[in-house]
Known about the structure:
By secondary structure, the chain is α/β, with parallel strands linked by helices. It has nine helices and nine strands. Strands 1, 2, 3, 4, 5, 6, 7, 8 and 9 form a nine-stranded mixed sheet that branches. α4 crosses α5. The relative contact order is 0.15.
Amino acid sequence: MNKLHDRPRPLLMAHRGDPVHAPENTFASFQLAIDSGADILETDLWFSKDGVIVCHHDDTLDRVTDGNGAITEMNLKEIKTVRVKRSYCGQFDEAKYPHEQIPTLQELLDFTPADVALALELKDPAFSKPERAAQLIDMIRPRIDAGTVMLLSFDTGLLWAARQVEPSVWIGEVSMFSPNPTFAGNGVGTIYQAMKSNPDYMKTARQHNLWVCPLDPMPEERLPWYLEIDVDAVLTDHPDVTRAALTKLKQQ
């Protein structure tokens, strides 16, 4: 991540923005994360029925919006009629955010400052198609060149489809329990229990030139350990709390 190499580690990756304080994967959530000093905004990508890439975690609208139905079966115009109201970990008054829409990837690219990186988790199986992978790569090419974008997925086939289009794109494997970090891409993320189960986890990751970000969106209790083992980034659902905790620990 070229633009981020000079920043103190661990970098702060804002999981769906700031979903504790605003509806997840919305501009309100992303702006709160930026205001809290997030280095990286993480979001999730799907295609609409008419082929537009949108930022939304689930394959349906039901959990966090006032609408329902499958994202991939709706045109962008239909998707834009719903309002995002909730988060999986929200602690806010829904009435405070009456107008939040599902962003498109292009809108997020236009919105995000150049010095804030993007971590784009590929959810839609359609990213395995060469033409869809090429569509994504074309959109993010300026950030690939700048070193401020990473592609993530639990499904590594989607990542390798993107690599087929652009060999230099940064890719990272996300997994629930993977104690042996040997992915042939650029980065890995798994739950801290998997990391702790292998005393040589970080050594192995470094031997494979892998960037490490634990899959742990409430990381405060484990921040001293993450600093000790020198992870590259920490994931967080509340960037303000995590940033304050990191600052305090580094001052000790």
